[in-house]
Amino acid sequence: MTEQRIAVETVSTDNEKRMGALKADYEALGARLARDSIDIEVVTGKVREFFVAVPSWGVGTGGTRFARFPGPGEPRNIFDKLDDCAVIHQLTRATPTVSLHIPWDKVDDPRRLKTHGDALGLGFDAMNSNTFSDAPGQEKSYKFGSLSHTDAATRRQAIEHNLECIEIGQAIGSKALTVWIGDGSNFPGQTNFTRSFERYLESMKAIYKHLPEDWRIFSEHKMYEPAFYSTVVQDWGTNYLIATELGDKAFCLVDLGHHAPNVNIEMIVARLIQFGKLGGFHFNDSKYGDDDLDAGAVDPHRLFLVFNELVDAEHRRAENYRPAHMIDQSHNVTDPIESLIRSANEIRRAYAQALLVNRTALEGYQDDNDALMASETLKAAYRTDVEPILAMARLQDGGAIDPIAAYRASGYRRNVAEERPAVVGGGGGIV
Ligand SMILES: [Mn+2]
What pLDDT shows up at residue 421? Predict the structure, then answer.
């Protein structure tokens, strides 16, 4: 029996109030879609089967390099974090797994994580290693790099850390390792591009050698930051080279915030799908850089265009296509639970809208070079308000019609603030 963090009655009372309106809206949308020969039940069914993993680090308040302003009831440890993640899943029914970060989520016995997750009905998605900061008591520093470091002993330590992440992951049922490194340089001439990439590849191969048969490894590219002149894994091209060099279990992870402004991310996604190397996503949104804002909050159309590529791949049964969906965000001015609820819904919204694209018509317009109608075909799907589908999907799985309203009605944050001591703010640094 799954332990519910929010009283079931709170959710059902809030749902009662909204049930009549939802039924009317759902019926109206169903009739509208039926005119285009789309069965709303089929779309709702697909949305119900679409899931995205929540990052354990996302339920704590984030910050910028200037400051962090903690909110009430901050999770004290990974068990509190899992409780918060369970709330998000209880209300959205879209986030049954959590992505852990080591060493932040390390406990003496990883089986305790599994037991706590099981009780809450949560599983574990990809493990994230951390060689971009120094853990207390760590022998070698990553100040000048980790997997690509000039010093062999430092590289060895970074490799061992990744192997430890795999080991912990195996104990809790994870099946993937995500590797993002902060390695790079701040000044021209500081590092030799070729040598540092050679060292990185050698280290990654050492990790890959120990990857269990049924696991996948995701490498994540990022054009800049924390290194400001160059990073070792800077773009999708380099990422593709890595995945190809390593082998069949290696894939590229696309974090939407890790590109130059105006880069055509949906096209990168299409290329990686075409060559069987798309591993998955870190969803978030941004205006200027790696802002880690809520998915779909700034540019929902871009999110839709990414999903248009994903549904296209699903539609033509692309080979080696099994992307992992994960959120990677930092919540600085909102209640992290509310931001993650909203993000999970926005990601499902983009998926539902992409499912409405008339692909046969689109292909015809593309073949006829009818640019306007091809563009209109995408626009027609994007303009459709699919909220009744999303709400119905949540309701049918026992979630909330309006999850943020139900969350606020529950008083969850107030309640946990009573047992979790207030965190003092201050120093900068994203957590
Ligand atoms: Mn990321």
Answer: 87
The β-bridge relationship of strands 184-185 and 230-231 is antiparallel
Mean pLDDT across 185-200: 98
Region 47-59: what's the mean pLDDT?
A: 98
Distance between CA atoms of residues 241 and 243, nearest Å: 6
Q: Are 181 and 147 in contact (CB under 8 A)?
A: yes
Report CA(282)–ligand 1 centroid distance (Å). 5
350 close to 299: Cβ distance less than 8 angstroms: no
Model confidence pLDDT, tens digit, residues 340-385: 999 999 999 999 999 999 999 999 999 999 999 999 999 999 999 9
Q: What angle do CA 34, 40, 46 make, to 5 degrees?
A: 145
Cα(107) to ligand 1 centroid in Å equals: 23
Q: Which residues surround ligand 1, an ion (CB under 5 A)?
A: 255, 282, 328
Instruction: Give the type of residue at 60.
Output: G
State how far the Cα of 68 lies from the Cα of 193, in Å rounded to an integer.
Answer: 34
Q: What is the pTM of this model?
A: 0.97
Kindly give, in sequence order, each residue whose CB lies less than 8 Å from that of residue 401, ignoring residues fewer than 6 positions away: 14, 15, 18, 19, 22, 391, 394, 395
Distance 208 CA to ligand 1 centre (A): 20
